[in-house]
Design brief:
Length: about 160
């Protein structure tokens, strides 16, 4: 199986290496997902540089968010999940990843893997200032300056959700 891995910390463009690794086997309470889409964010860059608060042991496979199809389950995990499309935090830049079954969410039909992979961290993070900020109150509009257009739209949508209709 192919996976992008980091064997030495530094700039991602110089340190990400595509190579062959063993396919994962699900342990108890875990499952394996065929990766369809991966969400990458600034924390991934920091992690590859060794500048993020979470420092996985080398080598590691970066990727903040992963969407794909469940292909195998470990002990204690329902076989009903086999063949279902799911999304979760973690894993990512590999053809298959092993994840805790308790941390995956089913992807609704009609939602692309690319969009699903952007939800757990990137999409939800942009709403955080509105929901946990010190000045948040029900009915108060949330204004923020999103840099990329999608982030700005995301935060604007949170603002509308907080204003009673």
């Amino acid at each position: 199986m192919r996976a992008w891995q980091v064997h030495e910390l530094g700039d991602p463009i110089d340190r990400l290496v595509l190579g062959e690794v063993d396919s994962p086997a699900p342990g108890p309470g875990r499952l394996v997902v065929d990766t369809e889409a991966v969400g990458l964010a600034f924390p991934d860059v920091l992690q590859v540089r060794g500048e993020y608060q979470v420092k996985p042991p080398l080598p590691f496979t970066p990727g903040s968010e992963t969407a794909g199809t469940v292909v195998s389950v470990g002990d204690g995990v329902s076989t009903d999940l086999l063949g279902r499309r799911v999304v979760a935090l973690g894993g990512g830049l590999a053809e298959q990843i092993e994840l805790p079954a308790s941390q995956v969410f089913e992807v609704p039909e009609g939602l692309s893997a690319a969009k699903a992979a952007a939800i757990p961290m990137n999409y939800c993070t942009t709403g955080s200032p509105c929901m946990i900020g010190p000045n948040w109150r029900q009915g108060r509009p949330c204004w923020s300056r999103g840099r990329p257009v999608a982030w700005g739209r995301r935060q604007s949508s949170w603002g509308w959700l907080l204003v009673p209709v």
